[in-house]
Amino acid sequence: MAHLWEKSYPAGISWGETLPAPVPVESLLESAAAQWGDKPAIDFYDRKLSFRELHQLAARAAKGFQALGVGPGVHVGLHLPNTPHYAVCFFAVLMAGGRVVNFSPLAAPRELKYQLADSDARIMVTLGLPVLYPQVAALKGSAGLETVVVCSLEDFLPAPAVRAVFGPPAERVGGPGREIDFAELVANDGAWRRRPHGPLDEEVAVLQYTGGTTGDPKGAMLTHANFCAVVSARNRWVGAALQQGADKTLVVLPLFHIFGLSFILLLSIATGSEMVMHIRFDADRVLQDIARKKITIFAGVPTMYTALVNHPAIGKTDLSSLSVCASGGAPLPVEVLNRFKELTGLTPSEGYGLTETAPLGTMQVMGGTPRAGTVGLPAPHTIIEVVDIETGMTLLPPGEKGEICVRGPSVMKGYWKKPEATAEAFRGGRFHTGDIGFIDRDGYVTLVDRKKDMILSGGFNVFPRNIEEAIYEHPGVAEVTVIGVPDAYRGQSAKAFVALKPGAAEFSLEELKRFLADKLAKYEMPTELEFRPTLPKTPVGKLSKKELIAEELAKRGAAGA
Ligand code: AMP
Question: Do 174 and 95 share a structural domain?
Answer without folding.
Answer: yes
